[in-house]
Design goal:
homodimer; 335 residues; alpha+beta; 60s Ribosomal Protein L30, Chain: A; Phosphoribosyl-aminoimidazole Synthetase, Chain A, domain 2; seven-stranded mixed β-sheet; five-stranded mixed β-sheet; 11 helices; globular
């Protein structure tokens, strides 16, 4: 589903910053004066979903969840959403009701109120959700907070959403593979997990959500923080169902984990003492260690790059993560 | 451009309130705890504009202006916008740059910062803007604040945007009719005017912006406040260019003023003492009197309606304003 590659997207973001003179663009949410957080994401039929392969109720859930995930990515608390939908006049009212039902379910699950929005016509279904919230009283975690010596940590597992999408695109409703379907259709914003991380690290760390894949998250953290990050392949958590489906389909599950996207897990960098606090929670600790943060090496600087994101493969080779392979949405529906 | 009629839209809004359990839907903006205002509006190619008949720069301006107008409609102060654009991959970067240029121009003109957003693919250009602001320190003006005995007041003139659209749809760039083209392509959010009204009435009044025509605004104010409002046709301000173009095109300029929409003028209800304060500003008073607010009569109640919005025509006949004729956007692009 990808045609705009990562570095093109980065260039475009830089241009938008230039065109608008905005200093707030670039993290998961805008942090506004007074400690408000605001974020918007749009899902378009044929680009981010296909109405045939996800129910309207799940779609409503997902549209809200991905926006709440942006608030989680800053360790904030979501409070309100605005819902702007454009839909073809041919869309049945029943479908619209199911869509709003899913929206409300997700909002209520995280104590978020639907505060407004609009509904208008359009050639395809498009759902734009604005999430509004507030920063946590202990601060905000930005992408730029990683420091050499930190551990790279994450919640959950990666690749399951891509596995679920693969099944749905094959016309399968999942059968016994309920986990990956659920992960694709009903992602969970990691709010409580983000707050646990913030409490453990006291605000000294980096955080984002991995909407475009684990590799992209690691690259973004390295770039924003001006550090080098090494990810260890053997430590990347991949669910058994994802491994099975990738095996049957002839894909590498690590590829789905790194580049598939839409897992909406948290990826962050915190120091070892903070991780020890999380570890003291025992089974209640939602974070795994994935790797570590280093200073930029001379070699990296000679390559004219001020950051680096690498993966240590099982055979001990160290290779650059490929920013070009990340999942990006900038494409028309194939007609 | 209208296929969803006003009462269908009202029914749909009631259903959305029901589906989402939201108590905040229904006014121009959501008023959030702490005095924040938030509003979102989406403009879709083929529904709200046609890329052939408006420049990308004007389109960017307009997309922001209509959202700031929602903040003005509550007498609030806009502070930030989020910009979510979905665009076909075929859209030239030059066009995108012009679009963001217009967005920035409008934002900067009203001291509003672009705080974030996203850019994604989609089959047609769609621009969703979230406006965030704060309530005025003297309070907020809702649609529901009209009281019997109030005067009905407005800013500016009506019908000019419809006249401009008519010219643009005829393929005319306006020629000497620069006023109506400007009114259609670069509407002005009436922020200072709203603040003047709020100061004059001390918060005791009703206000909204007439995005769907003057008639719709009067009907909405009457419904939300549970009052009867009488509009006087001879007092409706219509610009000379609008009268000329309507004459040439065989339209009634009053019809454009009442039902054309997109003028983004303010329509409100305040008491006579408050209007006297505005009048004391002399030429600096931006408001005209259009009519007055009455109690619901027995006759109206017998008609099972709890509000009424009527117009006194030049021949002294009193007729109901037609909610069905109002300009609504819920339609596909005709293919």
């Amino acid at each position: 589903m990808s045609s705009l590659k990562k570095n093109q997207e980065q260039e475009l973001i830089d241009k938008i910053k230039d065109w608008t003179g905005s200093t707030k663009i670039g993290d998961d949410c805008a942090v506004l004066p007074g400690g408000s957080l605001a974020s918007v994401d749009t899902l378009v039929d044929g680009v981010h979903f296909r109405t045939g392969s996800i129910s309207f109720r799940d779609l409503g859930w997902k549209a809200v969840a991905v926006n709440l995930s942006d608030i989680a990515a800053m360790a904030g608390r979501p409070r309100h959403i605005l819902v702007s939908i454009s839909a073809p006049a041919s869309l049945a009212e029943r479908a619209l009701a199911e869509l709003y039902r899913g929206i409300s379910e997700c909002a209520r699950s995280y104590r978020v109120e639907v505060a407004g929005g609009d509904l208008t016509g359009g050639p395809v279904l498009s759902i734009s959700i604005t999430a509004l919230g507030e920063v946590h009283e202990q601060g905000v975690l930005l992408r730029s907070g990683a420091r050499p010596g930190d551990l790279l940590v994450c919640t959950g597992d990666f690749g399951a959403s891509a596995a679920g999408l693969h099944l749905l695109e094959q016309g399968e409703s999942g059968g016994r593979h309920t986990y990956v379907i659920e992960r694709h259709c009903r992602p969970v914003p990691r709010l409580c997990e983000a707050w646990a991380l913030l409490r453990a690290c006291g605000g000294r760390g980096a955080l984002m959500d991995a909407s475009d894949g684990l590799a992209d998250a690691v690259i973004q953290l390295a770039m924003a923080s001006g550090v080098s990050i090494e990810l260890e392949a053997e430590k990347v958590p991949v669910h058994q169902e994802c491994i099975e489906i990738a095996g049957l389909a002839g894909f590498d599950p690590l590829d789905w984990a790194l580049y598939g996207g839409e897992d909406y897990e948290l990826v962050g960098c915190i120091d070892r003492n903070s991780f020890a606090v999380l570890e003291s929670y025992g089974k209640l600790n939602p974070f795994h260690v994935l790797g570590f943060v280093n200073s930029i090496t001379k070699e990296t600087e000679l390559n004219l790059s001020n950051s680096a994101a690498q993966i240590r493969l099982d055979d001990n080779r160290l290779v650059e993560l490929d920013g070009q392979k990340s999942f990006q949405h900038f494409e028309n529906k194939p007609n």
